[in-house]
Design a protein that fits this description.
Length: 485
């Protein structure tokens, strides 16, 4: 594959696609009441519409990521952008729940834009700049998910919620045109096939798991429905692992860097779980009235502004992950990020009615998640051959979504379990319980980070950025080197 056009332009285009998608999705949550009124839905129906987006993401991301490994990444990217744009147009024009649901399901394919972007970065960027490109992509995800809630309120107030969709659609059309012009054909070095049986088993396992987790607050956390869904999910995922270890061209090659892939999956799940602090705990804490003894009595806009440090700090952390990796190594970067997330949990325990303390906690959380998730993408893509980069990169994003779903449902249940009489808001004890639960989960991630390889011996994606271009072969032309096991 030719090294031109300019890699920086390609990085800019694919990153813009990631930004638009994640910005739109992060702005929709604060606009849910307006969307519900606009389509004449009930809270339950609209909630399930957005759960459908998550389920769609879980199914399509591994499949599309694998398609990017065996087909022209440019065509796959254009196809995903087109599907997402169609979903945005349908959801934006919906006047009832059904077209909104179909639109959101189509939008679910957009989650794979991030792993697609990391695969394209590995193909077009000089190997010593791959980490920097990954940092820009993950930083964009963190920044937009932190910025979106702050932008949603003013946009909805000024022009209505439908312009969240219309604005995104206009930008997606521009990005599609730019992709067609700037991104070159990126055919794989050898032909491959999609493991459809593995895709069906993985999709089934994730669907059963996510449906059970979503319904857990209604069914009960020890109900037969939830336990049955967990058991069914484990059976399907175990079958998926067995199939992947036996087929010649698996959906996700678990034989490559098996230990690293397993640890990365668990750590990505923890990252998703920890984001619950930003998306559930902090907004509820901010919204509680001062009479509760801890709340700020703020609006959704206030919560959005207090989450801006989360997005900004996360973006900066993702951008500096590459230099930190060279200085400390992947293991210490991941441990450091998780320790900072622990610091966020500890800070929230002292937050009470202080907006400044909440903002500090949000900033620490952004730094921690930005460092950990960016380094996880670097680790997992650096542990496999370049032709497997996209499919493997999709795994952390899916597990992050699963962790976020579980964390959100647990948070909702914990906060609803102890309400101040007459106030209708969670007690401070309910918040501290959730903070301690998250702290315990992240503490386990610190231990997992310690057992990761300290340094890659020879992954081209993780070479020192001081290495001259001429000294490094393009990743599509060079054999990959494995991580220490």
């Amino acid at each position: 594959m030719s090294a031109s056009p300019k890699p920086s332009r390609i990085l800019l285009v694919v990153t813009c696609g990631v930004i638009v998608y994640f910005l739109l999705e992060s702005m929709l949550a604060p606009a849910l009441p307006d969307i519900q009124a606009g389509v004449g839905g009930t809270p339950a129906s609209v909630a399930w519409v957005f759960t459908g987006l998550l389920l769609s993401s879980a199914v399509t991301t591994p499949l599309v990521s694998r398609l990017a490994d065996v087909a022209d990444k440019r065509k796959v990217l254009l196809g995903v952008l087109a599907v997402v744009a169609a979903g945005v147009a349908l959801a934006g024009s919906a006047t009832s729940v059904l077209p909104l649901a179909i639109g959101q399901i189509l939008q679910g394919a957009g989650l794979c834009l991030a792993p697609l972007a990391t695969g394209i970065v590995r193909d077009v960027q000089p190997p010593h700049l791959v980490r920097r490109g990954n940092g820009i992509i993950i930083g964009s995800v963190t920044f937009t998910t932190g910025l979106g809630p702050a932008l949603a309120g003013p946009i909805v107030t000024a022009v209505g919620y439908r312009w969240l969709f219309w604005g995104a659609l206009l930008l997606l059309v521009v990005i599609c045109l730019a992709t067609a012009r700037v991104v070159p054909p990126m055919r794989p070095p050898r032909r491959g096939v999609v493991d459809w049986s593995g895709a069906a088993l993985l999709a089934g396992g994730l669907l059963v798991l996510l449906i059970g987790v979503t319904e857990a607050p209604v069914w009960g956390w020890l109900s037969s429905g939830l336990l049955g869904s967990m058991a069914g999910s484990l059976v399907l995922l175990a079958a998926f692992v067995l199939v992947e270890l036996r087929v010649e061209q698996p959906l996700v090659d678990l034989r490559l860097g098996r230990r690293v892939l397993g640890l990365t999956a668990l750590l990505s799940f923890v990252v998703g779980f920890a984001t619950t602090l930003a998306y559930v705990c902090i907004p509820n804490l901010v919204a509680a009235p001062g009479s509760s003894g801890y709340g700020l009595g703020g609006t959704a806009a206030t919560a959005g502004l207090l989450l801006v440090p989360f997005g900004l700090a996360g973006a900066v952390a993702a951008a500096v992950t590459g230099p930190l990796d060279r200085l400390l190594g992947p293991r210490l970067v991941i441990v450091l990020g998780n320790v900072l997330t622990l610091g966020s949990c500890a800070t929230l325990l002292a937050a009470a009615s202080s907006a400044a303390v909440v903002a500090i906690a949000a900033g620490l959380l952004g730094i921690g998640i930005g460092l950990v998730f960016t380094e996880l993408i670097n680790v997992v893509t650096g542990s496999v051959p370049a032709e497997r980069a996209s499919s493997v990169a999709g795994l952390p994003f899916v597990l992050r979504s699963v962790g976020g779903t579980l964390g959100s449902q647990i948070s909702g249940s914990v906060l609803a379990s102890e309400v101040i009489p007459g106030a209708g808001v969670p007690s401070w004890n309910a918040f501290t319980t959730m903070f301690w639960v998250t702290l315990a989960v992240v503490a386990a991630a610190v231990v997992l980070g310690v057992v990761l390889p300290a340094r890659s011996r020879n992954s081209p994606a993780l070479e020192s950025e001081s290495t001259p271009d001429s000294a490094i072969a393009h990743p599509m032309q060079k054999g990959n080197r494995k991580w220490d096991r």
